[in-house]
Write a structure and sequence with these properties.
Largest sheet: 6 strands, antiparallel
Radius of gyration: 21 Å
Structural class: mainly beta
Distance between the termini: 20 Å
Number of helices: 3
Number of strands: 31
Helix content: under 10%
Strand content: 35-45%
Length: about 450
């Protein structure tokens, strides 16, 4: 069944234009990415109460935050008292909103070391104090005194249904890291603890590994208050591969019905407790929903979304088996043969995986968002947009926009909140440059079907 037959508007995009955030944003390529446009960051761009917010590093390395009103072309910009410490594209800026007190929170500049934290005065996001530097507190290296870990990476803010704010992060290093949560109740940050384990034995025909990291596609609440997370494992020991590429393998899935305190597999069995002795581990039962060996250049930290019925969806990408195994060069093989796939749970509870028939032509990540009709939109590197309708069972993937006029570097940061509240798909992207020459940073806007 097509969207038109079901009586629901078919997926589509209409270009509304773009706005300039910064004519000279910081530019350097690291780990094949840019620090201002790593799509795994949560809330690098978001909308709250009709205003849109963005964060990035300017040419002089200053952390910068801006906002604009509904339909406005001008962004009001504030420069914060922090400068990026190193040319590492992992050191992104992630933002979060605590609805109980109207504060904006920012965590930044961390890749397996200390982090930087800034929060606004109360009520700023409710429109009370003026949008100026004075509205932001001091730069801290703790969450108001809560130190967390000396090896901090991958910050992701997520608001709880009752208005608290949670911060997900990795403690440790790549190949030997654990996921953890902290929570802000409107006045105080509390460490909830770690919930994934780095230990256990994983073996292939090539070798074994005894340490790893769980890389999350995201942490997202659904309409029922359940917390969803897709993930991939990355092994520490490269002997699990046939001789090349990253050690990423399998797509797993966990669910929490108690605000991230207890984690269950797809069958509903408890597989880990946050802050407790039992953690989600590579040998926990029932985690894998799409098995894949390490030799297929599987991307970590891609993207996920939850539909209006509370069903989880994800984009994963790898080199399909028909092209052979990726054993020599992870990036080159993904550019040559990589494909994105839409993985989701259907109404009967079964997992379905559909290849999106558009070559990646990139080593980088694709973003997934769902509109008010639960149509799926994949925003590929370079700002290309494809979509599939819910009525088709997400089998009619079609390229809607080729991104050719953007001159975008690669990954984009999508506003995951505006698509539902305003029926507009917005994403932040940076223009291609060379070396360390600064380049323009933009937000592109597309109207979706009414």
């Amino acid at each position: 069944m097509t969207a038109a037959v079901s009586g629901v508007a078919a997926p589509g995009v209409t270009r509304l234009g773009r706005t300039l955030l910064d004519a000279r944003a910081l530019y350097f390529v690291s780990y094949d990415g840019l620090v201002n446009n790593n799509s795994f960051q949560k809330k690098g761009l978001f909308t709250h109460r009709g205003r849109q917010y963005a964060a990035w590093y300017s040419a002089d390395r200053s952390a910068t935050v801006a906002r604009r009103g509904p339909g406005a072309e001008h962004w009001a910009t504030v420069t914060l008292d922090h400068r990026l410490k190193s040319d590492d594209s992992h050191n992104v800026i992630s933002m979060g909103v605590s609805r109980t007190d109207g504060r904006l929170h920012l965590v930044m500049d961390a890749h397996s070391d200390g982090f930087v934290y800034v929060k606004s005065v109360a009520g700023l996001l409710h429109g009370e104090p003026p949008w100026t530097r004075a509205a932001f507190g001091p730069v801290r290296t703790t969450l108001d005194g809560l130190a967390l870990t000396a090896r901090f990476t991958c910050p992701q803010f997520v608001p709880t249904p009752e208005g608290r704010l949670q911060l997900g992060y990795r403690a440790g290093i790549s190949g030997d890291g654990r996921n953890a949560l902290a929570e802000y109740d409107g006045s105080t940050w509390t460490a909830l603890g770690e919930w994934s384990s780095a230990t256990g034995i994983y073996s292939t025909a090539h070798g074994s590994s005894t340490a790893r990291s769980m890389y999350l596609h995201g942490i997202d609440y659904d309409v029922h208050g359940r917390l969803h997370s897709f993930f991939t494992w990355r092994e520490q020991n490269a002997s699990v591969t046939s001789g090349g590429g990253l050690t990423n393998h399998d797509t797993g899935y966990v669910l929490s019905a108690d605000r991230g305190r207890t984690w269950r597999n797809d069958a509903g069995e408890v597989v880990g407790t946050t802050g407790g002795p039992d953690k989600v581990a590579v040998d926990s039962p029932g985690l894998v929903v799409d098995p894949l060996a390490p030799d297929h250049a599987l991307m970590n930290q891609e993207s996920q979304a939850v539909d209006s019925a509370g069903r989880p969806h994800a984009i994963i990408s790898h080199v399909p088996g028909r092209f052979g195994r990726c054993t020599t060069d992870y990036a080159a093989d993904r550019i040559a043969h990589g494909r994105a796939f839409h993985l989701r749970k259907n109404a009967s509870g079964a997992w379905r995986k559909t290849e999106i028939p558009i070559p990646l032509n990139s080593s980088q990540r694709t973003k997934l968002v769902l509109d008010r009709y639960d149509h799926a939109y994949a925003v590929f590197p370079f700002g290309r947009i494809a979509a599939a309708s819910k009525a088709s069972g997400y089998t009619d993937w079609t390229l809607l926009y080729d991104g050719g006029d953007l001159n975008a570097f690669g990954e984009v940061v999508v506003d995951e909140t505006r698509i539902r509240s305003e029926n507009v798909l917005s994403f932040m992207y940076q223009a291609k440059s060379t070396g360390t020459t600064p380049s323009p940073l933009y937000v592109a806007d597309f109207a979706l079907p009414a």
